[in-house]
Write a structure and sequence with these properties.
Its EC number is 1.16.1.9. It is found in: Cell membrane. It is a multi-pass membrane protein. Belongs to the ferric reductase (FRE) family. This is ferric-chelate reductase (NADPH). 43% of the residues lie in helices and 19% in strands. It has 490 residues and is an alpha/beta fold. It folds into three domains: 166 residues, Up-down Bundle (Four Helix Bundle (Hemerythrin (Met), subunit A)), CATH 1.20.120; 100 residues, Elongation Factor Tu (Ef-tu), domain 3 (Beta Barrel); 195 residues, Rossmann fold (3-Layer(aba) Sandwich). The chain has a six-stranded parallel beta sheet, sandwiched between helices. A four-stranded antiparallel beta sheet has the order 5-2-1-6. Strands 4-3-7 form a three-stranded antiparallel beta sheet. Helix 4 runs antiparallel to helix 5 and helix 14 packs across helix 15. The radius of gyration is 27 Å and the shape is globular. The two termini are 29 Å apart. Bound molecules: flavin-adenine dinucleotide. The site of flavin-adenine dinucleotide has 22 residues, from helix 6, strand 4, strand 5 and helix 9.
């Protein structure tokens, strides 16, 4: 930007710095449509490149900062001139100040800690300050309006598309009217099931949910990944797992009158996010922590569908999920039961790592080795989950048939018998490096690792892929490992 601002400037000429100030101001104007495009949820860059709008948001912030920087250089270089000319009360200067302080306010209210602490404040401030910036910039220098109107059009189109998407899914001709079932499946997790006619989405995509009855404002919406994929034509059920925090999600939980509530209307808008298919991999290792399971579970179910219909060459499908308590499996039990009933002739494993057991109080792998997890034990389950009785899962050293670790009490999980055959419980955190090494050794073709969860888990998965997918291993003929990660933070 700075380089372009020197275009055709004779540095020795009188007032060359003012010419530079004007040109860098024009550069700031020229960034505006790009800044708005990169913030849009349905932008063509995502469609063309496959990069999700959440990841493009990084470029939105970068181009926004560049624009502010250029605007301030423009303003500071002109300040002495405007001062001597006594133009501070002229309208074009006042509008310029509205624009620059509006834009600076956008930056100042967007820090991560503000978004984490008060997302709704950030959102409202972003809308109001964007309007201030656009109006200010338009009237500051109307000859540059051809940069501002495209930005306005991009923003308006994005909002319009959101309204259309909401109406298309929810309203009268769908006969849905916000109907859904909310179930309390853990102390702070709600399972929301919404049945909508003809609803379509792909694995890994998310919807914005609005519950005007419990939201702070009528327009408040929050993103949640669908935990399943549509199976049939006609009425389709979308399943979401919602962890209650302090805002909208807590109000939703508080509004529930019983553990299963069908009285709160919830409207869906979407789907959003770029769908990336894992169909062409021979082995897929899906790694999740907590409610991050929604993202990977939809891939898990989509891959089973593809394998059943012969669209995918997948031979090994492995889900590794970290939960605080064994009973958290209840969240996804109906989906696993369905999957286990129809599962095709491929190797399907679900390993649930329970992090809050007496033997699980250890740091992430790499810091300390966890003996029972390092050497995979066989798992024997006793008890009948469906009958509602608690069961015990014992980890046994295969060589010596003696318990390696304390038993993990596995409370009622709602898993059917066929689902229990593919699900095993382990204490502590997974040694992802060892797990990946084994999956790669058994794989006949390309391997994919997809992870969604807390930053520590994603970093652990990245390290595992780096350690296994080395150039030396590739030279030895090891199959290629592809990595994909998804964040669900703000
Ligand atoms: C693409 C995507 C998919 C997600 N999928 C799931 C999921 O499947 N299950 C799940 O439990 N959570 C998911 N989340 C997170 C979920 O959106 C937030 O937990 C929820 O919006 C919190 O609302 P709150 O008002 O109760 O939050 P608060 O208590 O106000 O804040 C808790 C955290 O949520 C963030 N947050 C609040 N509002 C939003 C918002 N509108 N957009 C993004 N982040 C927000 C805050 O910055 C903060 O970090 C997903 C987030 C994204 C971006």
């Amino acid at each position: 930007m700075i380089g372009c601002s020197f275009y055709r400037i004779d540095l020795l000429a009188e007032n060359a710095y003012l010419r530079f100030a004007n040109q860098i101001g024009i550069m700031a104007f020229a960034q505006t449509p790009l800044v708005f495009l990169l913030a849009s949820k349905s932008n063509p860059i995502s469609s063309l490149t496959g990069i999700t709008y959440q990841k493009l948001n990084y470029l939105h912030r970068a181009s926004g900062r560049a624009c502010i920087f250029a605007s301030w250089i423009h303003a500071l270089l002109w300040t002495p001139e405007v001062w001597w000319a006594g133009h501070f009360k002229r309208w074009y200067i006042i509008w310029g100040l509205v624009a620059i302080f509006g834009f600076t306010g956008l930056w100042a209210t967007s820090f991560r800690w503000i978004r984490r602490a008060a997302f709704e404040f950030f959102l409202v401030a972003h809308i109001l300050l964007s309007v201030a910036f656009l109006v200010g910039a338009l009237f500051h220098w109307q000859r540059m309006a051809y940069w501002i109107w495209p930005a306005v059009a991009i923003w308006a189109f994005d909002r319009l598309l959101r309204v259309v998407k909401t109406l298309r899914i929810n309203f009268p001709w769908r006969r849905a009217d916000g109907q859904c079932t909310l179930e309390m499946v853990g102390s702070d997790v709600i399972r929301l099931t919404a049945r909508r006619r003809g609803l379509k989405w792909s694995a890994g995509q998310h919807f914005f949910l609005a519950a005007p009855g419990v939201a702070g404002s009528k327009h408040e919406t929050h993103p949640f990944s669908a935990a399943n994929v549509p199976s049939d034509e006609g009425d389709v059920e979308a399943v979401f797992l919602i962890r209650a925090h302090r805002g909208f999600t807590q109000r939703l939980r508080d509004a529930m009158t019983s553990d299963t509530d069908t009285s709160i209307p919830v409207f869906l808008e979407g789907p959003y996010g770029t769908a990336h298919s894992l169909e062409h991999f021979s082995t897929v290792l899906l790694v999740a922590g907590g409610t991050g399971v929604t993202f990977v579970l939809s891939h898990f179910l989509a891959l089973l569908q593809s394998a059943r219909s012969g669209r995918s060459p997948i031979r090994l499908l492995h889900l590794v999920w970290h939960v605080r308590h064994g009973s958290d499996v209840t969240w996804i039990a109906p989906l696993l039961n369905q999957a286990a009933k129809e599962h095709p002739d491929i190797d399907v494993r679900v390993e649930v790592f329970v992090t809050r057991t007496k033997v699980a109080d250890e740091p992430w792998p790499g810091e300390v080795q966890t003996p029972g997890v390092e050497t995979p034990p066989t798992v024997t389950s006793h008890g009948d989950h469906l009958s509602g009785r608690s069961s015990q899962t014992t980890l046994v050293d295969p060589a010596e048939s003696r318990p390696l670790l304390e038993t993990i009490p596995t409370p009622t999980t709602g898993l059917s018998r066929s689902a229990q055959e593919i699900v095993s419980f382990k204490p502590g955190r997974a040694d992802l490096c060892t797990i990946l090494r084994r999956d790669v050794a058994r794989s006949e073709g390309q391997v994919n690792v997809t992870v969604c969860g807390p930053e520590a888990l994603m970093s652990s998965a990245r390290t595992a892929v780096r350690e296994v997918n080395t150039p030396e291993a590739a030279r030895r003929g090891q199959v290629e490992v592809e990595f994909f990660e998804e964040t669900v933070g703000s």
